[in-house]
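Ex. 9. Protein: EGF-like domain-containing protein.
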Amino acid sequence: MKKSVKLVLLSALGAASIFSTISLTSCKRDKCKTISCQNGSKCIESEGSCECAPGYEGSMCEVVTRDKFTGTWNVQEQGTISPTTQYVASIKNSALPGANNADVQVFNLNNSTFGLVNAVVKGDTITIPEQNIDNKKVQGIGYLTKETFYGNHETLILKYKITNMNNGDVDDFGFVVGTPSTWYR
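Predicted structure tokens for EGF-like domain-containing protein:
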């Protein structure tokens, strides 16, 4: 009798552990079962959320990040060398071979000092990696802010600097010193 009770208890314990293992394993797999990540992104099983490919964001990676930046901007700025000026600039999808959905090009940066400048967007940030154009080195970083006073408009605060490679002069727009460039739509 003791052996049969022992056998029943061991069988019940074994069945419970098998059931628990199956339940826990299936729960882990189910986290991504109902998630449909878009644009080549993948679901992370341990978190049950999408890991977006470069250039995409949103809960399902459905938003092209650079779309927040592209378009025409009204710029107001004053550098450490340049006087206060206002002009129009634009940000467009990159036309470079091999560009991805995070790559953009800035046209008319610094009121035509450069024809175009390459940049990369991630979230609400735009980065201008260091690059040499016409004997001038440019680099910078900027971020979007929501303008709630005038409705659903965005403002881009861009901090950048231009170094003249011929004479070493640096025109700084808040990158290290000075006032950041403000871009409005």
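Check your answer against this statement. The two ends are 85 Å apart (CA to CA).
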